[in-house]
Structure to design on (1224 residues):
């Protein structure tokens, strides 16, 4: 009896097998023929490939089901054979593997793009992956391997579907990256890893596209944002054209040149993709001998990672205070409310662009206005924004239906704004966050209202954190909103919020505040707001919901980043303010912003990003 | 054997005797004759007055030496009799008092004004009071009573002189106030009490000038700033002209009408001044019967009180953050340096006026420039500033001689800037602060330099506090400068200062920072400075050395006062910014400043000030 797959991954580095397609071609697969059909028509051929890899030393045999979704099988008129083809594939691999190897059920892309890039809805993608994954799981695979995905939105849908089928099955999730270090649809490795971990992956990494050197760089970038075990499944080098034929030149020895570094990074599964053969797998196996140490996950540093398709943002003590642009919110905004009622998105698009340009780290998206279909409006808003900018999103709604529409529409891992300590809110929102892999703003109020003192707010935060943990949501995915009460109405409002932020920070939780609310009803509001902002940043606030168009807010933020040691050499500050006179206007030139820490780039770890 | 005088004051309320002058007139003192000469020429008459008050129930007999300084006796050609007249007076009172009463050696004003109001130097005043007080103390009086002073500068000189003669002798210090609640030379009771306590008074209060109701209001105001035992020595009502003769209409019963309130306030000595007779004293004694409770000094709330002749300022947690105007400092100011070399004061005067107008709570005075007589320059600067504004002073020099010149020139209790933890500095500055009754800025550096971490700075602060305590300087008279290192050179500079301020605040010590230094070398410096200022105010900073002409500094301060609950109903903020646009200029109209918390007025307690 083999030990559970994830236990094996923690105890030793596992070798996954190599390429299937080329092996099948060598064994008779014709151009235009479905490789997966061979599970039905030539099971012995498939088994032969598995056997070759098993004999080469593979610990994991991958089923011949890469194109096993209905969308793919439909090309061959096999769309009604999904369950049978996938089940047979597992059976074949299972028989070869016996007790010597694990069976990984392979799932590849559908070949279609998800909305709004393509025409496949989230629900369609979800259904396709559910069908295939159910067949693989029911047939008894040990692990599912999502391979060669180009689009984080599609692989995210696959993960969400699998996790609905089984909370426990190990899932390997891999995207393919190009030489510039982004996936075909523009995702950097960090955005991919953040999204994959949030959606429920057990192991993340990359397959195909690059050789071991390229994959190593990808995995280094991923390691900055995840403590999951990693997987490397490189091609045998970059393809070259030789006498009109594409050839992968990597020798078995070259495949193992990065092993020590890979192991140091926490790579726990190593296999091969295009161009690899049993000889490569044997070399990999050989190179690992005597180098097996147990996996120790890097400690969670408490950072809340949020991602979009093309970027990502950090909320945490080690990072600049994240600026959540507050302006996509119809409260008090007639024009935007009107557009929401008319189904228009020009205000949203403009604000997404402008807030991003001015330095917003994240964009709050609120479409709550009376008399509209809020879920539809949320989807429209998310599609509009993700088409215009790469800034990660904060979905802001009190409607669980609208939140779910936004969660389906989003490309990556979003921040939900918000859950609170009320029974009803917890019951509705925690499952959504878990299912769709979102982080959570936690308002420190409950059925008894807003606690007047910091102590009460901390108690609510702790209660939400406990319930979130029970629901499988990580503590580092919580951002506690300590609540800003208007100081002109509530003279202790600022002091209580400051104390609450300090306490929440001491608990190791991330925090946020709707800063501007502090100054309601007073003249020259940005003066009060920016002073309060400075104070709460020093007290440990890790994100803030602010109007990035208020110059005093941005100058407080830029200054605070220097003072709190988060703008090294004041580079961002100097870029923003060099040569500017203070007093007349303190708004920095917009153009200068791109190199300032206001930009999502600055929140990104180094590594592969430096090469972009 | 009587118990020590101060022990008696703590155990019960003592009755002091009544008027001496009118009693002597009734017993043969002629117009144009020296009352004090009677100590030599008619000791039995003087003894008779004492005996009448003793029999009426007085616990304290006051010697007939009110005009016993050489300056006064010179008018009668008795200037060479100071020692004899004062010694005889004590002997006469001592004989009458026996073991039944204490003898208080009376000292009144010299009749001359101290520079720059008059032509008497501090040293001359000091010498006159030293001569008289030495005679009284040597003759064995139990306590000295400084009475009927009009000028806090003169009574301060007297106290400093007495404390050099004896650290232990109890000293009662009383100014006379007019009906508007200020002394003739414009001191409010709070400024008087702060100055008197600092200069070494054991009991403070007021005599003459007002009836018991007026004195009660004066003492209420004093109580806001001192926890010393108080003394009331009222006239028998306000004088009225009756048939061409001045008459004090207060009956003995009227004299006692305020007793309960007086006792509640901590008045521990009650006597009478003009118009009071043994009948009044007997009534006072009678009214106290059965109302004796021990004195419990109000707990020191940690406030550092600073005074000028006409105003006062508070540094402490319960008060707005005190703004120390930094601009009277030649560093980097060519014009001012030039004027210092030429002995001119126009820059100083202008900056004193402008900084006060803009909201400075205190004015830093630094005259340190190469090649000048710094002590002389310091005296000139102090005289110039005290002639122009009432804003209390911070004497800023590394020269003990210059500091001493400033301490002699000042009207009230100043803040010395600074002592530090170096042996040499402690040895030079602590005695000066003790002798002249000054508060102390304590720089957190020592012979080993500036500690890099907050912990080290707190250790230095604690060391200075311990040595200051040993030197007789109150902990609440220390203002710890946690040191601002330029963040562009010292990336942790702001974080260390923030932490140090927090720690110092937790120790119950007041704090200050030279805020602007944080931003040296960066563009748009006020943005960084004001953000840092906001942070340190929230961390518990109680004063700051700032450029009040920088609009962002003042807006940070005004905003912080609202946020930290020190600008009730945001009244000061609204006055300053109502109707102003933010962004273009954030400098409030100067005219609006007068009602804002920026003004020294706002730092003043209520009570009698409300009537001014
Ligand atoms: Zn490949
Ligand atoms: Zn492959
Ligand atoms: Zn009098």
């Amino acid at each position: 009896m083999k030990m559970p797959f994830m236990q094996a991954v923690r105890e030793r580095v596992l070798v996954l097998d190599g390429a299937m397609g080329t092996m099948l071609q060598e064994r008779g697969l014709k151009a235009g023929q479905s490789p997966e059909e061979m599970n039905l028509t030539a099971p012995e051929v498939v088994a032969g490939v598995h056997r070759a890899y098993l004999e080469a030393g593979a610990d994991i045999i991958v089923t011949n089901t890469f194109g096993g979704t209905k969308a793919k099988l439909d090309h061959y008129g096999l769309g009604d054979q999904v369950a049978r083809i996938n089940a047979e594939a597992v059976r074949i691999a299972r028989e070869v593997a016996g007790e010597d190897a694990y069976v990984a059920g392979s799932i590849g892309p559908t070949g279609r793009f998800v909305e709004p890039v393509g025409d496949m809805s989230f629900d369609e993608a979800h259904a396709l992956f559910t069908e295939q994954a159910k067949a693989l799981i029911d047939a008894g695979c040990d692990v599912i391997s999502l391979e060669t995905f180009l689009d984080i939105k599609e692989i995210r849908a696959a993960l969400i579907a699998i996790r609905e089928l089984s909370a426990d099955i190990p899932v390997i999730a891999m995207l393919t990256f190009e030489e510039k270090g982004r996936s075909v649809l523009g995702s950097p490795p960090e955005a991919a890893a953040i999204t994959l971990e949030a959606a429920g992956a057990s192991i993340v990494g990359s397959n195909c596209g690059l050789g071991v050197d390229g994959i190593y760089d990808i995995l280094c970038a991923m390691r900055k944002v995840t403590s999951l075990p990693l997987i490397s499944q490189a091609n045998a080098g970059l393809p070259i054209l030789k006498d009109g034929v594409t050839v992968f030149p990597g020798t078995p020895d070259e495949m193992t040149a990065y092993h020590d570094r890979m192991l140091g990074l926490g790579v726990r599964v190593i296999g091969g993709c295009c161009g690899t053969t049993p000889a490569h797998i044997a070399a990999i196996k050989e190179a690992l001998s005597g180098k097996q140490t147990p996996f120790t996950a890097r400690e969670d540093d408490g950072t809340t990672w949020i991602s979009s398709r093309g970027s990502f943002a950090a909320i945490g003590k080690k990072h600049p205070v994240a600026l959540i642009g507050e302006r996509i919110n119809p409260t008090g905004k007639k024009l935007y409310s009107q557009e929401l009622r008319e189904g228009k998105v020009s205000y949203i698009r403009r604000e997404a662009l402008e807030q991003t340009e001015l330095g917003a780290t994240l964009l709050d998206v609120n479409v709550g206005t009376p008399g509209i279909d809020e879920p539809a409006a949320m989807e429209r808003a998310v599609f509009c924004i993700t088409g215009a900018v790469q800034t990660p999103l904060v979905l802001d709604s009190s409607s669980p239906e609208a939140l779910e529409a936004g969660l389906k529409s989003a490309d990556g891992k979003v921040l939900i704004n918000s859950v609170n300590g009320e029974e009803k809110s917890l019951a509705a929102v925690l499952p959504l966050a878990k299912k769709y892999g979102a982080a959570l703003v936690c308002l420190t109020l409950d059925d008894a209202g807003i606690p007047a003192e910091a102590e009460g707010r901390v108690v609510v935060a702790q209660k939400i954190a406990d319930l979130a943990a029970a629901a499988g949501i990580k503590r580092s995915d919580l951002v506690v909103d300590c609540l800003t009460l208007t100081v002109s109405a509530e003279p202790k409002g600022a002091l209580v919020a400051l104390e609450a932020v300090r306490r929440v920070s001491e608990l190791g939780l991330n925090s946020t505040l709707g800063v501007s609310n502090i100054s309601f009803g007073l003249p020259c509001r940005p003066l009060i707001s920016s002073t309060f902002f400075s104070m709460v940043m020093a007290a440990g606030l890790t994100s803030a919901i602010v109007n990035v168009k208020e110059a005093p807010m941005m100058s407080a933020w830029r200054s605070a980043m220097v003072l709190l040691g988060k703008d090294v050499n004041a580079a961002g500050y100097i870029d923003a303010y060099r040569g500017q006179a203070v007093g007349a206007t303190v708004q920095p030139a917009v153009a200068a912003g791109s190199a300032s820490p206001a930009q999502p780039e600055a929140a990104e770890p180094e590594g592969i990003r430096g090469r972009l």
